Amino acid sequence: MIHFENVGKRYASGREALSGVSFNLEKGDMAFITGPSGAGKSTLLKLIALIERPTRGTVLVDNQNTSRIPRRRIPYFRRRIGIIFQDHKLLADRSIFDNVALPLLISSLRHREVSRRVRAALDQVGLLEHEKFSPLSLSTGEQQRVGIARAIASRPALVIADEPTGNLDPDLSLEIMRLFERFNQVGVTLLIATHDIELIDKFNCRRLRLDQGRVVEMPKSNGL
User: Fold this and answer.
1) From the CB of residue 59, how many other CB atoms can be counted at a distance below 10 Å?
2) What's the CA angle centered on 131, arms 168 and 170, to 5 degrees?
3) Three-state SS at 92
4) 208: β partners
5) H or E stretch at 41
6) Would you say 82 and 141 are in contact if contact means Cβ atoms under 8 Å apart?
7) Coil, helix or strand for 58?
8) How far apart, in whole angstroms, are the C-alpha atoms of residue 202 and residue 30?
9) How far out from the chain centre does Cα 142 lie?
């Protein structure tokens, strides 16, 4: 599903965010990227989503070489990936339903299908009864679940998440990770960047640790 081969990313400022990164994530896997702030976790995810392009090396996503995807095709490429941000990026002037529906409407799905998918996604994250609410009326944890619903409404085969529990307390963080685990159990591939080692110790999943822009693979935990 994801293949990095000797990937490097240098920004215009001269900062080398990634250097010589190589790893494979197979279809149906769930893995965590760990490492300190500034280690390159967000940059790695941005390369997968084509928010950034590598300076060197090869990035394959579902057998597509991202360097060969023209700019005009990037929106279509991203429709196959669910992207979850730490800060939710919800529209405060739209309802919960409209926030989740927006990417589907951009994809020109029929309104009946949009309604069906949005309600199914909200039901999966336990927020179906909140569909008419404003994001501002929800707790931080509920807002994060709206972001997750938006990411999965298009039924992507791959979901990437950048510090999705960074603003949550331990109980809510575990709830979000259990939700990701359920998605993985039905075949969704997940790659999650997090600094919360205590949390991911509860899951028997592969870990990739970034250290100064390089990946060091770590063994799975024993899980709980």
Assistant:
1) 22
2) 15
3) coil
4) 33, 217
5) helix 41-48
6) no
7) strand
8) 13
9) 17
